[in-house]
Design goal:
By secondary structure, the chain is α/β, with parallel strands linked by helices. It has twelve helices and 22 strands. Strands 3-6-2-1-9-11-12-10 form an eight-stranded mixed sheet, with helices on both faces. Strands 5-4-7-8 form a four-stranded mixed sheet. It has a four-stranded antiparallel sheet with strand order 15-20-22-21, with helices on both faces. A hairpin with an 8-residue loop joins strand 4 and strand 5.
């Protein structure tokens, strides 16, 4: 038996009973002969409560101190979980992200892992302990400041440790039984996927699927670490995410033509109106956005009006970055030369994902027919080899997801999807 890394989300350790239930599952893995490293998130809504508290004290808290505050949640979880494991008669040691050797860049609140040096973790498990690591956090390489990895950062911590420790698998425990063909909160008849490729999972994660974070899947693909997404509330097999199909029983699991439907209502749309249609204008716009350290998603440029020589450029970005983007563009309005800006945060994105699109020409037509039949109007379109995404009104998103899900035969014969915790992480 080799080493396994297990990650437990906030809903799994939301209270004392949850922590004790998780401790029993961890001990069971240890009894089965595995070396076990555990990455744990903050309990329940602890992180949100800490954010609210910080905003009451300071409307714009300093990044360094904000990170120091937020990492307290995971430290509480790791210590309590280690206590619960010891109470079951097994040795456990807890480690902060910095003690575990998670080295990051210096960007507070959304740092990126640049290296993992898990010497203390390896020594601990080799000595027979279960190592409990606080997720979501690390230490900056240059200033040695505590940093946080942003929302969902515990998933990335777990995969990074699994890669550094050469683990057999990284198990991500959440409050659903695996990755489903759609969000089970929206589509009650969503099916659990037995196996999905890294590529399809990356597209689903980037398109709004909340079960796995995009950075986590990208890290796993880079180091070829199999991920097993499963529920901490049941003993059911979950979803395997890997480079090659895995075998369940006596035959391999094949990937479906369509893996699933994802949606995202956390984005906004900015339209830059009256942009001169000449070389360099788009570059100036997106250089301004880049300099403000804002990530964008979809981009559409309209056809230039012959009479004016002007065009409009629309793009989507996280709602949380909307104000910053508007301010940056307005500040550089003279240099870019546009007329005005339009901001719209009442939009939603629906994405259809599946490697089978490359060899099935009818997929695009069926997708748009399903949206049309549901009375959903499309504002933006973006595609890749294995994904089609559209932007619609936010109010239409749920109906659109259900319509597309049904049109592609993804509905289960029964209400299969169960959400145990309620948050999806």
């Amino acid at each position: 038996m080799g080493l396994v890394v297990q990650k437990y989300g906030g809903s799994s350790v939301a209270d004392a009973e949850g922590i004790k239930r998780v401790a029993k599952r961890i001990v069971e893995a240890k009894k089965n002969g595995h070396q076990v490293v555990v990455v744990v998130s903050a309990m329940g809504d602890t992180t949100d409560e800490l954010i609210d508290l910080a905003e009451q004290v300071s409307p714009m808290p300093a990044g360094r101190e904000f990170d120091m505050l937020l990492t307290a949640g995971e430290r509480i979880s790791m210590a309590l979980l280690a206590m619960a494991i010891k109470n079951l008669g097994h040795e456990a040691q807890s480690f902060t992200g910095s003690q575990a050797g998670v080295i990051t860049d210096s960007v507070h609140n959304k740092a990126r892992i640049i290296d993992v040096t898990p010497g203390r973790i390896r020594d601990s498990v080799d000595a027979g302990n279960i190592a409990i690591v606080a997720g979501f956090q690390g230490v900056s390489a240059d200033k040695k400041d505590i940093t946080t990895l942003g929302r969902g950062g515990s998933d990335t911590t777990a995969v990074a440790l699994a890669a550094a420790l050469d683990a057999e698998v990284c198990e991500i425990y959440t409050d659903v039984d695996g990755v489903f063909t759609a969000d089970p909160r929206v589509v009650k008849k969503a099916k659990k996927i037995d196996w999905i490729s890294f590529e399809d999972m990356l597209e689903l994660a980037a398109s709004g699927s909340k079960v796995l974070l995009h950075r986590c899947v990208e890290y796993a693909r880079r180091y070829n670490i199999p991920i097993h997404v499963r529920s901490s509330f049941s003993g059911l097999q979950g979803t395997w995410v890997s480079s090659e199909p895995i075998e369940q029983g006596d035959k391999p699991v094949e990937q479906a033509i369509i893996s699933g439907v994802a949606h995202d209502t956390s984005e906004a749309k900015i339209t830059v109106v009256g942009v001169p249609d000449k070389p360099g204008e788009a570059a100036a716009i997106f250089r301004t956005i880049s300099d403000a350290e804002i990530n964008i998603d979809m981009i559409v440029q309209n056809v230039s009006a012959a009479s004016t020589g002007l065009t409009d450029i629309s793009f989507t970005l996280p709602k949380a970055e909307g104000r910053k983007a508007i301010d940056a563009l307005e500040k550089n309005k003279h240099g870019i030369g546009f007329d005005s800006l339009r901001y719209d945060d009442q939009i939603g994105k629906i994405s259809l994902v599946g490697a089978g699109m490359k060899t099935n020409p009818g997929v695009t037509a069926d997708f748009f027919t399903a949206l049309s039949d549901a009375g959903v109007n499309i504002e933006l379109i973006s595609t890749s080899e294995i994904r089609i995404s559209v932007v619609t009104r936010a109010d239409d998103v749920n109906e659109a997801v259900r319509a597309v899900h049904t049109a592609f035969g993804l509905d289960s014969d029964s209400d299969e999807a169960v959400v145990y915790g309620g948050t999806g992480r």
